[in-house]
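pinging the channel bc i need a second pair of eyes. not urgent but kinda urgent?? the chain im working w is below, pasted from the shared doc
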Amino acid sequence: LVLLVALPIIGVQNGISDKEIEQHHRAELLYQYYADGNTEILEYSNAKTQTQLVDFLCYCATKWLHIESVYDFRHVVGALFAWLIIVVMGSFLMNLFSWRAAFIGGLMLALSPHFFGQSFGNLADISFTFCYILAIHQIGILIGELPVLKWKRLVFIVLSIAAANSIHIGGFVLLHYLLISVTLSFIIANPISGSGAGAAALE
């Protein structure tokens, strides 16, 4: 809870990076593409692989709500994603190991200068990271729950993977993780008893 309050305050006081300016400009061009048909966004070579949904939504919010401090708003949103990453990472490590691992993992993130820098100056990557970790976490819980399938788990997985792909095309890797994890879980739960089958055939 302390970080939830502290991170946005620190974010507002943070400077503006060149990458952030570029991301905001691309979000503006994407908005113009949908609003006015301006095709300048298509001139970017990675326009089809980095859709930057969160940047786009932030631009829409600042425009519709007439927010003048655009970058302060982006920093606050990035700070909230950073807090969510710490929470999800802690929950993931808690389920995988113990509360000690969760505490150490969260503490390491909270003390990482690089993590904070990305949180305030790289909204696209920090939001993608949150969706990515959330999907991995939910896939891990799904494997533990099998063979029972819960609608809540499936919804979380679908939404997190879809959100990751709406930010960066690299989110498609999560589909491979899901497929491989479920397949391995099925194989482990249903081993092929070749020796038993051979003995039965001899009898």
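so The two ends are 67 Å apart (CA to CA). and Confidence is low (pLDDT under 50) at residues 195-203. — does that match what u expected or am i reading it wrong
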